[in-house]
Amino acid sequence: MFRFRPWPLCAATLCALALSLRLGATPPLTTISDTLFNADGTFFNGVVVISWPTFEASDTSNVAAETLNVKVTNGVLYVQLVPTTNADTAAVYTVNYTSLGVTQYSEAWAVPPSTLALRVRDVRLAPGTVSGSAPANATIITIADVTGLQNALNVRPAIGSGFSISRAAVIDATGALDGAAGNLTDCLHVDGTSGPCTSVSTTFIDGEVPAGTMNGTNATFTLANIPNPSTSLALFRNGLLLTQGGDYTLASNAITFQTGAIPQSNDVLAASYRLSVSIPGVGFIDQVVPTGAINGSNTVFTLGLTPSPTASLQVYRNGLLMSVGVDYSLSGTTITFLAGSVPQANDKLICSYRVAQ
Fold it and tell me: Is the pTM of the predicted complex or chain greater than 0.70?
């Protein structure tokens, strides 16, 4: 007669349950499935070596540090990995592609949880990317917890109400970084204000040869432009400065030489002048006669303004350019001629220079 003994079955069930509790449940896995190619279009064949540090998965499963070699044949990659993007401790996979015993390329993977198979592009991290998740029991650190952080933040400029992309940054009255106001075509000043840009013309004509026949009888020559102002015209004949109103007259762009000053054959004419030049802070003084008696004994002459810079002063005596330090000295508005260069009776003095405005 047989007797049923249920205790061996119960013992086996309890042992299996205890083993399951001790080992824990299998952590969730994400499938990465893709086809790998070489640059020449052939299938990649080799081994993908995947390594990772110890980390705790999202279900608190402890994943030990390890290295996994995944063989790739005819480009087929298939591997299942524990997700890291939602792990309780931050982790990424280091992936090395090896072929013919040589590591061809290395990259990092951040694997998200997914019920669908992912491709390599879905898990690949760009260089320098930080990925991972904070532990569930992470301690929150406030600004006040970091010594000196609040003071450092206080001295940093804030963003003003007008701050915007593609605007020049200015510091407003409160010390905040703000966007410059005005039109996009405006000019920005050092004080942060803006306004229409001042037009600056810097058209200088130098060494132009006036058009006209040089034959000893023709008295009319023409410039390519109209000098503006007319006094800016400096006309040289064989290197000597001619006097406007004495040697020639100027009407618009036409030069008419006086009798006795008509250029002869083989003479050389050269003209320099300006065309409405306007430079902020710079003024031009053209061909003025300094104050002083021209009598062969007086050495001191005075200009109306102080040349700035001093080197801009050009002093002509009878059309010949004098040299500072050799023929004269300059102090402020005073020209003092040196011995041997003192203007004689009937000499003509002409000065041109720049001034600060």
Answer: no
**In CATH, what class is 30-125?**
mainly beta
Per residue in 296-335, pLDDT tens?
Answer: 999 999 999 999 999 999 999 999 999 999 999 999 999 9
Pairing status of strand 334-337 against strand 300-302 = antiparallel
Maximum Cα–Cα distance across the chain: 162
pLDDT at 4 over 80: no
C-alpha–C-alpha distance, residues 304 and 230, integer Å: 20
| Residue 185: CB atoms within 10 Å | 8
Instruction: Provide the terminal-to-terminal Cα distance of the chain, rounded to the nearest Å.
Output: 131
Q: Which of 7-16, 125-134, 243-252, 288-297 has the lowest average pLDDT? A: 7-16
Beta bridge partners of residue 56, listed in sequence order = 62
The domain segmentation of the chain, as residue ranges, is 30-125, 204-274, 282-356
SS (H, E, C) the chain: CCCCCCHHHHHHHHHHHHHHHHHCCCCCCEEEEEECECCCCCECCEEEEEEECCEECCCCCEECCEEEEEEEECCEEEEEECCCCCCCCCCCEEEEEEECCEEEEEEEECCCCCCCCECHHHHEECCCCCCCCCCCCCCCCCHHHCCCHHHHHHCCCCECCCCCCCCCEEECCCCCEEECCCCCCCEECCCCCEECCCCCECCEEEEECCECCCCCCCCEEECCCCCECHHHCEEEECCEECCECCCEEEECCEEEECCCCCCCCCCCEEEEEEECCEECCEEEEEEECCECCCCCCCCEEECCCCCCCHHHCEEEECCEECCECCCEEEECCEEEECCCCCCCCCCCEEEEEEEEC
The first and second tokens of residue 279, run together, are 């430079």
Whether 119 has a pLDDT exceeding 80, the answer reads yes
CA distances from 275 to 109, 204, 341 (A): 69, 6, 34
Q: What is the CA radius of gyration of the chain?
A: 46
Please answer whether residues 253 and 223 qualify as being in contact, where contact means their C-beta atoms are separated by less than 8 angstroms: yes
pLDDT tens profile 167-203:
788 888 888 888 888 888 888 888 888 888 776 667 9
Q: Are 89 and 56 in contact (CB under 8 A)?
A: yes
Residues in the chain: 357
